[in-house]
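Chapter review: from sequence to fold.
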Amino acid sequence: MAGLLNLSLQELLAEVHRRQKVLPKLLKQKAKLQQQLTAIAAEIQALGSAGMKSGKTGMTPGVRKTRAAKTKPAAQAPTDHESKRPRNTMSLLNALLTVLQVEKAMSIPEIVAAVKKLGYRSNASNFGMIVSQVLSKAGKKVVRVKRGEYALSGWVMSRSLLT
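The token string follows.
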């Protein structure tokens, strides 16, 4: 663009004319490529999800896959090599708040056991760490009574008034 600033009016008009001559050729090329893409999309549609299970994208080496190529359709069931993520009826925070309604402060291992007993499922190998993170982000709903022990904030207030 900086090179165009130094051109005379005659040279600018010649450049505009040159570009106008190239435009129809580029538009034809675009239309031809669009037809090819439409044909390829129809072939992919005809193959359905059966062609996607092989894991091969037909891409040349060195070309990076996009995120869309890695994702699977929502209705597709996981294969044997994939672990199925548990689906819970309530969020972990809601499960923690339910568990903490007991009349005592609880440690992380006690909370983890109670949440699992409540029916919350997780495949995490470090579920206690996840519980700790959710408790720390719970804000004013949950308070840390002492090191490693948590309770509902209302319970701590009522206990401190009684003692």
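Two observations follow directly from the output. Helices lie at 2-5, 9-47, 67-70, 92-99, 108-118, 127-136, 153-162. The chain has a mean pLDDT of 77.
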